[in-house]
């Protein structure tokens, strides 16, 4: 599936369209990439080539990381297990929470101060 996704990106999506849709570091671009990555039925190891293809096609690093996290959190195995053990409502809530947490995690990365050794000593 990941190979098909990479081929689709290379052949059918022009790089200027990709740059317009997910080419910025804004909330909308990060959310779009998380929503694109969430329903893909790929194994975790197949996520990396697809993410590299997105990155080489012009997606910023925050969108690429958003794709990786959302695809890994909402994989076919984890969603089917959630459906079996928790039911349909909780499964949908879990999938939406994965997309929302990915988006806000990447938005907060710039607002947090860098963690240095001196800062760690202050916290301890």
Tell me about this structure.
The structure is a single chain. This protein has 124 residues and is an all-alpha fold. It has one domain. Helix 3 packs antiparallel against helix 7 and helix 6 packs across helix 7. It is globular, with a radius of gyration of 16 Å. The N and C termini lie far apart (46 Å). The model has no long low-confidence stretch (mean pLDDT 76).
Overall 3D form = globular
Largest sheet: none
Helix content: over 70%
Order of helices and strands: HHHHHHHH
**Percent of residues in beta strands?**
under 5%
Q: What's the gyration radius in Å?
A: 16 Å
Separation, N- and C-terminal Cα atoms:
46 Å
Tally of structural domains? 1
Based on DSSP secondary structure assignment, what is the total number of beta strands? 0
Structural class: mainly alpha
Question: Based on the structure, what is the oligomeric state of the protein chains?
Answer: single chain
Instruction: Quickly count the helices.
Output: 8
Unreliable sequence segments: none
What value does the average pLDDT take? 76
């Amino acid at each position: 599936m990941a190979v098909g996704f990479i081929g689709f990106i290379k052949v059918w999506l022009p790089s200027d369209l990709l740059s317009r849709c997910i080419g910025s570091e804004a909330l909308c671009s990060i959310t779009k990439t998380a929503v694109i990555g969430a329903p893909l039925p790929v194994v975790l190891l197949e996520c990396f080539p697809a993410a590299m293809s997105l990155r080489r096609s012009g997606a910023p690093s925050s969108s690429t990381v958003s794709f990786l996290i959302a695809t890994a959190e909402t994989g076919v195995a984890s969603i089917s297990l959630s459906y079996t053990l928790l039911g349909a409502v909780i499964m949908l809530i879990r999938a939406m929470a994965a997309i929302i947490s990915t988006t806000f995690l990447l938005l907060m990365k710039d607002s947090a101060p860098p963690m240095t050794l001196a800062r760690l000593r202050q916290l301890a």
